[in-house]
Write a structure and sequence with these properties.
It contains 7 helices and 7 strands, in the order H-H-E-E-H-E-E-H-E-H-H-E-E-H. It is α/β, with parallel strands linked by helices. It has a single domain, classed as Rossmann fold, CATH 3.40.50. It binds S-adenosylmethionine (SAM).
Length: 216
């Protein structure tokens, strides 16, 4: 299988110069709807995981502390430049979503837009998101998902061999992924192309929140 983290680093480095042409206008409304679902409070510490060129940055409140990460150094350079253009004091760092260099329970909000369907092991990204979220913190997801009621059929799985190599996995199911990762979904709404793209808001489940709290 060609969908590996090493391949993602290479291909997103290649996509970086044209990424905004493809993903800015197309996903603007979807990302705004997803971010609107977050209960924003002044001073919140917020982490964007797999933030790409930083297309979420313009739509974030200004009175929060922003940390934004991505696997690809070329993506991070563009993200940093966008933050500077916007006058944002965002900390932009190259980082693998599977190994976040932040302490436990450090963030109020973690944003994962268009990354869970790209990572070869999304459950590892969610485990890290859960670890760095404080108890009661908010996970904001926007991505494309197979419906939760039934797994992808043979045709979709065949197509997925190609799409996951050059773009994204199209067989992942949001609820099994998030609930299996210890999150309780509080909002789940279609945001683009019928219900292919969905925005979800979730919290670490209570047991997980207690674990994170006691790890301090
Ligand atoms: C489809 S883009 C989405 C970018 C951005 N979140 C957005 O909404 O426009 C996927 C991004 O995930 C990044 N990525 C892929 N695997 C990653 C990983 N393991 N850790 C961190 N970033 C990753 C890629 O470099 C790319 O920038």
């Amino acid at each position: 299988m060609i969908n590996t983290t090493a391949w993602n680093r290479i291909r997103y480095g290649l996509y970086a110069p044209i990424y905004d042409l493809v993903a800015d206008r197309v996903f603007r409304r979807a990302r705004q709807l997803a971010l609107d679902a977050v209960d924003w409070q002044p001073g919140m510490r917020v982490l964007l995981v797999g933030a790409g060129t930083g297309l979420d940055l313009p739509w974030l409140p200004r009175d929060i502390e922003v940390h934004a990460t991505d696997l690809s150094p070329r993506m991070v350079r563009r993200m940093q430049a966008r933050a500077e253009r916007l006058g944002l004091d965002a900390q932009c760092r190259v980082m693998n979503a599977e190994a976040l260099a932040y302490p436990d329970a450090h963030f109020d909000v973690v944003i994962m837009h268009l990354i869970l369907a790209v990572m070869p092991h999304p459950e590892r990204g969610l485990a890290e998101a859960k670890r760095v979220l404080r108890p009661g913190g908010q996970l904001c997801v926007m991505d494309k998902f197979q419906c939760d009621e039934r797994p992808a059929g043979p045709l979709r799985r065949l197509l997925n061999v190609a799409t996951s190599a050059v773009a994204t996995d199209i067989t992942r199911q949001a609820r099994p992924l998030l609930e299996g990762g210890g999150f309780a979904i509080v909002l789940d709404r279609p945001v683009m192309l019928g219900s292919l793209f969905r925005a979800l808001l979730a919290h670490p489940t209570e047991a997980d929140a207690r674990t994170a709290g006691s790890a301090q």
